[in-house]
Amino acid sequence: MSELILANARVVTRTEVLRGSIKVVEGRIVAIDVGAGVAPGAIDCDGDYVIPGLVELHTDVLERYAFPRPGVRWPETAAVIAYDAEIAAAGITTCFASLALGYVVDTGRRPANPRALAEAVRGAQAAGLLRAQHLLHLRCEISTAHVVDDFASFADDPLVRLVSIMDHTPGQRQFVSLDKYREYYRGKYGLSEAEVEALIAQRQGEQARFATPHRAAVVRACHEQGWTLVSHDDATVAHVEEAAKAGTAIAEFPTTREAAKAARAYGLAVLAGAPNLVLGGSHSGNIAAAELAAHGVLDILSSDYVPAALLHGAFLLHRRHGASLPDALACVTVTPARRAGLDDRGEVAPGLRADLVRVHLADELPVVRRVWRAGQPVT
């Protein structure tokens, strides 16, 4: 019988922080005891925090490993293993890789169809090569021509749990400001002024043609598959109403306070970027995550493009933005877990899976020292 005891820790439960120990048997938490003593055979955490394993709903990092430079395609399984190592080192024990369906600009740094990457995740996980548990979040750019066909190839895939409906057409949602769109696409893709203007015209034309029928097709398929729907970059109350009508559970990256408040009113969990919180604002000029927190409309943090930002952002919510530590950590543990339909993790509580992270606080910076998934050490 496998047994693990983490002692002399600051244990963060859903409601409090207590000095004590956690006992794990066969991958499940069986007891939480108060007291600073260290029993024989226990791991002395020396006063460090022990928190639930982090649950990441939206990260684009896998594509970065698979396509590290324009025109360079790394072997898929090797990319998945390297990506997994970064995820686990950040304290993330459950991760939804966000794979894009329908790309806007083909620079050779994103797969036209990420099916091969999904199969590499499946194969590496089945072979026991990965530290974290990996699931899939499909990001559907509904205003592109082939998104519905690409999406159909994932039918009945058990790794898929989340589907976000995205529309990055210039002039609305994330890119209400065309100047911001021009700045972003010139900087990210190295496009000339003429190329950006041609892209704006192309994207607006494609949206007029594809967005409405593709949205309907993706929503219908998600209901048939039982997948959780996610809205993306809602900017107006009308955007949120459309998402709520479709049965959406999560509003990720709302761009305005009005949209975030409307999402909350309709029962959607509001997700914001942890890099936004760490850096003090949005790179696109949209609402700051700190402002959402100040208005009480922030439920989930996502690391987006920097896995280490997830834990950092949660501790900033606590130390700089007034949230209790249990409430701040809920944004990266139990709340995303429950919204994604995962009821066996996300809290330090008897009966739940022992996904645990030992965290040392160096001034204000949380540093991951050890990670366990289902009671087994992975870092």
Give your account of this protein's structure.
With 379 residues, the chain is of the alpha/beta class. It has 13 helices and 16 strands. The protein has helices at residues 61-66, 76-89, 115-126, 147-152, 178-189, 193-225, 237-245, 257-265, 274-279, 289-294, 309-319, 325-330, 334-339; strands at 3-12, 17-25, 28-34, 43-44, 49-52, 54-59, 92-101, 133-141, 160-166, 228-232, 250-252, 269-273, 300-302, 356-362, 365-373, 376-377. Strands 1, 2, 3, 4, 5, 14, 15 and 16 form an eight-stranded mixed beta sheet that branches. An eight-stranded parallel beta sheet has the order 6-7-8-9-10-11-12-13. The chain is globular and about 70 Å long. The protein starts with a strand and ends with a strand.
Give the oligomeric state of the chains in this entry, treating copies of one chain as homo and distinct chains as hetero: single chain
Number of strands: 16
Major β-sheet annotation: 8 strands, mixed
Nearest-integer average pLDDT: 92
Concise account of the structure shown:
The protein has helices at 61-66, 76-89, 115-126, 147-152, 178-189, 193-225, 237-245, 257-265, 274-279, 289-294, 309-319, 325-330, 334-339; strands at residues 3-12, 17-25, 28-34, 43-44, 49-52, 54-59, 92-101, 133-141, 160-166, 228-232, 250-252, 269-273, 300-302, 356-362, 365-373, 376-377. By secondary structure, it is α/β, with parallel strands linked by helices. Helix 8 (257-265) links the parallel strand 11 and strand 12 (269-273).
